[in-house]
Write a structure and sequence with these properties.
By secondary structure, the protein is α/β, with parallel strands linked by helices. It has 20 helices and 30 strands. A seven-stranded parallel sheet has the order 10-11-9-12-13-8-14, with helices on both faces. The protein has a six-stranded parallel sheet with strand order 15-26-25-16-23-21, with helices on both faces.
Length: 682
C-alpha cells in the first residue's frame, strides 16, 4: 500500500456515500489538508471528506486531526472544495481541533513561497508562522484592542530629513507600496516620547513609517532581531500609538501571551504587529507595510529547517501581498544594498553635511597622528586617545566601552610557547573565571589544577583575550572615581544615566544612555576582525555602528574611539559610510563568485549519501560545485558540498534540490541536510 496516497485507503466515495456511513456536508464536502509532517515526500496537499457533523467547524485555516498511513496526524485545512478526483475514495476528517482559522490564505501562500525558495517542507515553515495552540486562550473573552492614536506630525521629521523620505511617507499614506532601504544616522532631530539619546532615531523612523501606513487604513508588521529591541519598540509605540493599538509577537513572552496576541492579529482586532523573526508571518489583514530592523543580524535566521531568513520572508511577502517594505539599520548589509543597486528598492539617504553634524566624531588609534603621539600604542589595550576620551567624557556623562568577549579571561595560552591552553580531559579551551581562581575548561567545567603545556611542559599561563569582567576591573582601577557597570548577555542592563558612569559591554548588550554617551570606546577591534568567516568584516562594522549610534552628536561633544589596525572596515567607520562598504563587499564577492552576489546551498550528510545526492542533481550548467569536504565525526564520516548559482537560476536549483530530497526520503535513504543561502558556514 502506498501510504503517500491516503485517498486510496478504505473510505467512501464523496459522490456515493456508503450505506449507513456518515452523512457528508451538503456544501463543499471536500477539505484539502496540509499535514504537519517534516517528511519531504509527504509535502503536498491531501483531500479528506467533511461530514455534516463537522461542516460548520471545518473552515479554511482551522487545525484538524486526520488518519494517514495507519496513524493520526495534525494538519490545517487549506480550502473547501466541491469535489475531488473522480472515483477516488476519501477518508473523513477525524476531528476539528479548533474552529479558530489560524492559517490564512495569504500566510499559506507565503509559507509555500518560502519553502520553495529554501528547498524546504511547507509544514516546517508553517510551524514557525503559526504558534502552538493554547486552548484556554481561545475560550477567553476577547480583549478590547484600540485604534492607533494619530502620531504627531512632527514624528515624521525623522524620515523627512532623508532624501526621498517625504515621498516615501506620502506614498504609504496614499495606499501605495513603496520599497526602501535606509541607513539611519543617530541624533536626527525629532520629538522623543522616550529619551534614548541618539539611539532613539531608529524608533522615530519606524514609528513614522507605520503611522503613514495606518493613516491609509492598512496594517503594518515590524520585525526586530531580539527581545531587547522589541522591548524598546513597544515602549516607544506605547507613547506614540497607545498600548492597545499593536500586538506583540515574541516567544520570550511565553506561549500563552504569544498565542493571545496572535489571535488578536488573526481575528483582525489589531492592525499593527511587532515581534521577532516569526512575526514576519503575522496574519495582518490588508498589510500595507513591513519593516525589518537590522537585517544583517543572525537572529533573523531561523535555526530550524529550512533555515529561512526574515529578510527574504518579507521580500516575498512584499511581492505576494503588494505591501510596502522598509529595511532599516545603523549599517547596511550587502543583501540590502543589492536591492538598491538592482532598483528593486529605493535608497533613503541623509545629506552628507547633515550626517557630519549628527554623527559623533570618530577617532582611530591607528591613525598616523595618534601613532606618533603614543609610542606605546602597539602594546596598550587602552591607548592614550581612548584613555583621554574616557577621562574627559566621564566629566560630562556616561562612557561606553565595547569589548569582544564576556567573562574574566575567556581564553588562556602557555606563557612560554604561546600555544592555546587545552583541557587534559576533553581538549576544550581553558578560561579563568575570576582573579585567583583556578583555570577551568569551558566545555566540561573541569578545573585544571596542576596544568602543564602539552607542547613544552611549561606550567604558567597568560591571557589570550580579556573579557568584560576583567576589563571592568582594570578600568575601575584606572578611573577610581567612576562607577563601573558591566552589561553582557548574561547580565543585561536596559539603561544608564548620569555622569561618572563607565559601562563595559559586549556587542549587542550595550545599555541605552538617556542623554547619549559622552564617549564610546571600541576595544578589541583587531581580535574581532581576526575571526575567519565570510561575514566577519561586515559584522564587526555593524557592531561598531550600533554602539557608536548610542553616543552624542558631534556638536554635543560626542566622540568615538576605535582601537584597530588600519583596514577598509575602519576607514568606512571613520567616514560613517556603511553603503560604500556594502557596495565594496558586493563588488569583491561578485568577482569571487560568493554570496550575496550569487546564491548558495550547503549539502551535508553521510559521505556516500551526500555524494550520490549531489551527483544525481540535474542542475544548470552555470552552477558551481565545490566538494566534497570531509567532516570527521565520532561515529561517521560526513561530506559537505557547496553549490553556488546565479540569482536567475535560483528557482530551478532549489526546485531540483527539493525534488531530490523528496526522492531520497521516499526511498528511505540516509538523511542529507540541505541549507540554502546559509553562508554563515562559509
Amino acid at each position: 500500500m502506498d501510504v503517500s496516497q491516503p485517498s486510496l485507503l478504505q473510505g467512501f466515495d464523496v459522490s456515493r456515500p456508503a450505506p449507513g456511513g456518515p452523512r457528508l456536508a451538503e456544501h463543499l464536502p471536500v477539505a484539502r489538508v496540509l499535514l504537519e509532517t517534516p517528511v519531504p515526500h509527504l509535502d503536498q496537499l491531501y483531500d479528506y471528506a467533511v461530514t455534516a457533523e463537522l461542516d460548520e467547524q471545518a473552515v479554511a485555516g482551522t487545525r484538524v486531526r486526520v488518519r494517514f498511513g495507519g496513524q493520526e496526524l495534525g494538519g490545517f485545512i487549506t480550502e473547501r472544495r466541491a469535489e475531488t478526483d473522480a472515483g477516488v475514495k476519501l477518508q473523513p476528517l477525524h476531528k476539528v481541533v479548533s474552529p479558530e482559522p489560524v492559517l490564512s490564505a495569504h500566510v499559506l501562500a507565503l509559507c509555500q513561497a518560502v519553502a520553495a525558495r529554501y528547498a524546504g517542507v511547507v509544514s516546517d515553515v508553517v510551524r514557525a508562522a503559526v504558534p502552538p495552540r493554547m486552548a484556554r486562550v481561545e475560550k477567553e473573552e476577547r480583549p478590547a484592542w484600540g485604534e492607533p492614536a494619530p502620531a504627531p506630525e512632527a514624528t515624521a521629521e525623522s524620515l523627512a530629513a532623508y532624501d526621498g523620505g517625504t515621498a516615501f511617507l506620502g506614498e504609504l499614506a496614499g495606499g501605495a507600496a513603496p520599497r526602501a532601504v535606509i541607513t539611519l544616522a543617530p541624533n536626527v532631530p525629532a520629538p522623543q516620547p522616550a529619551g534614548d539619546g541618539g539611539g532613539a532615531a531608529w524608533l522615530q523612523a519606524i514609528a513614522s513609517a507605520v503611522a503613514a501606513a495606518v493613516a491609509a487604513g492598512r496594517g503594518a508588521v515590524v520585525v526586530a532581531p531580539d527581545q531587547r529591541d522589541v522591548d524598546r519598540l513597544c515602549e516607544f509605540f506605547d507613547a506614540v500609538f497607545g498600548a492597545t493599538a499593536y500586538a506583540r509577537l515574541t516567544a520570550d513572552d511565553g506561549a500563552t501571551a504569544r498565542y493571545r496576541n496572535f489571535l488578536a492579529v488573526s481575528r483582525g482586532d489589531v492592525r499593527i504587529a511587532v515581534g521577532t523573526r516569526s512575526a514576519a508571518f503575522a496574519p495582518v489583514a490588508d498589510l500595507g507595510l513591513a519593516v525589518l530592523w537590522e537585517d544583517h543580524d543572525t537572529s533573523h535566521a531561523e535555526p530550524r529547517s529550512p533555515y529561512q531568513h526574515a529578510r527574504e520572508i518579507l521580500l516575498l511577502r512584499s511581492e505576494l501581498e503588494g505591501c510596502g517594505l522598509l529595511i532599516a539599520g545603523w549599517s547596511r548589509s550587502p543583501e540590502a544594498h543589492r536591492l538598491v543597486l538592482t532598483g528593486w528598492a529605493r535608497e533613503l539617504k541623509l545629506p552628507r553635511p547633515v550626517l557630519r553634524r549628527r554623527a559623533p566624531r570618530v577617532l582611530a588609534t591607528s591613525d598616523s597622528y595618534e601613532v606618533e603621539r603614543d609610542p606605546t600604542l602597539h602594546a596598550a589595550r587602552l591607548p592614550r586617545a581612548a584613555w583621554q576620551a574616557a577621562h574627559d567624557g566621564l566629566a560630562r556623562g556616561p562612557v561606553l566601552v565595547q569589548v569582544a568577549r564576556t567573562g574574566f579571561i575567556p581564553a588562556l595560552r602557555c606563557e612560554r610557547c604561546r600555544e592555546p591552553a587545552r583541557c587534559l580531559d576533553c581538549n576544550g579551551p581553558l578560561e579563568l573565571g575570576s582573579r585567583g581562581a583556578a583555570p577551568r575548561c569551558r566545555w566540561c567545567g573541569t578545573f585544571a589544577h596542576g596544568w602543564a603545556c602539552l607542547s613544552c611542559g611549561f606550567q604558567r599561563l597568560r591571557a589570550s583575550s580579556i573579557g568584560a569582567d576583567r576589563t571592568a576591573e582594570e578600568l575601575g582601577r584606572a578611573f577610581p572615581q567612576a562607577r563601573v557597570v558591566s552589561a553582557t548577555g548574561a547580565n543585561p542592563r536596559a539603561s544608564v544615566s548620569g555622569s561618572g558612569v563607565l559601562v563595559v559591554a559586549t556587542p549587542g548588550a550595550e545599555p541605552v544612555a538617556v542623554d547619549g554617551y559622552a564617549a564610546v570606546l571600541l576595544l578589541d577591534g583587531d581580535r574581532m576582525l581576526a575571526r575567519d568567516s565570510l561575514r566577519t568584516a561586515e559584522e564587526v562594522l555593524h557592531r561598531w555602528f550600533a554602539a557608536a549610534a548610542l553616543g552624542r552628536a558631534r556638536d554635543d561633544g560626542g566622540v568615538v574611539v576605535a582601537t584597530a589596525a588600519e583596514s577598509e572596515v575602519l576607514r568606512a567607520f571613520v567616514r560613517w559610510d556603511a553603503p560604500g562598504f556594502a557596495e565594496r563587499e558586493l563588488v569583491e564577492r561578485r568577482e569571487l563568485g560568493l554570496p550575496p552576489a550569487v546564491r548558495s546551498a550547503v549539502v551535508t550528510g553521510p559521505s556516500a549519501a551526500a555524494d550520490a545526492f549531489v551527483g544525481a542533481l540535474e542542475l544548470p550548467a552555470e552552477v558551481r560545485r565545490i566538494g566534497p569536504v570531509i567532516l570527521e565525526e565520532e561515529e561517521t564520516v560526513k561530506h559537505r558540498w557547496l553549490l553556488f548559482f546565479r540569482h536567475a537560476d535560483g528557482a530551478a536549483v532549489t526546485g531540483r534540490l527539493r525534488e531530490a530530497k523528496a526522492v531520497s526520503s521516499a526511498n528511505r535513504e540516509p538523511i542529507v541536510n540541505v541549507r540554502v543561502d546559509g553562508d554563515t558556514q562559509l
